[in-house]
Amino acid sequence: MRLWSTLGVAGLAVALAVVGCGPKKPAGPTREAVTALLQQEASSLKADGEKLDPVLRVRATWTVEGLDIVERPNDADRPWSGKIRFKIRSETKDTDGKLQVDEFEKQFDYLYTTSVNRWIFQMPEGQR
User: Fold this and answer.
1) Per-residue confidence at 7, pLDDT binned at 50, 70, 90?
2) What is the rounded CA–CA span in Å between residue 64 and residue 47?
3) Closest-CA residue to 114 (of 80, 74, 68)
4) Each residue's pLDDT tens digit, 39-88
């Protein structure tokens, strides 16, 4: 009887070890993968931002100043946060032909969400 209980405990230990060493859940996307996706998002924002109606006599140039990506280790569904920083130069011609130039910076905050496998735009804190 004692032999059977010892064998049972040993069998249970082996079964638990096999289950513990089984296939692991994917760790999520790599930094390189999410960086490439955020660069695509930045390119899309740049293209949209530079599309202006010529009748308005405004020309905008969006320059990507940087991408900031931070790992969020305790959030399995949103493992990465990202920020796209732009420097925008706007040139406007007045009715008398004088050129007005304005420059400013703008940033867009994102969270990478694994349930949809993409970056999701986050509203700034003051606008929620």
Assistant:
1) very low
2) 11
3) 80
4) 999 999 999 999 988 788 889 999 999 999 999 999 999 999 999 999 99
Residue 44, token pair as written in the block: 């899309």
Question: Which amino acid type is present at position 110?
Answer: Y
Kindly report the pTM of this predicted structure. Answer: 0.74
Q: Which H or E run contains 7?
A: helix 2-20
Q: Write out the DSSP string of 17-77.
A: HHHHTSPPPP----HHHHHHHHHHHHHHHHHHHT---GGGTEEEEEEEEEEEEEE-TT-SS
Considering only residues 6 and 50, tell me which one the structure prediction assigns the higher pLDDT: 50
Q: How many residues does the chain have?
A: 128
Q: Which two three-digit tokens encode residue 41?
A: 């998002």
Beta bridge partners of 66: 85
Tokens for 74, please give them. 């305790």
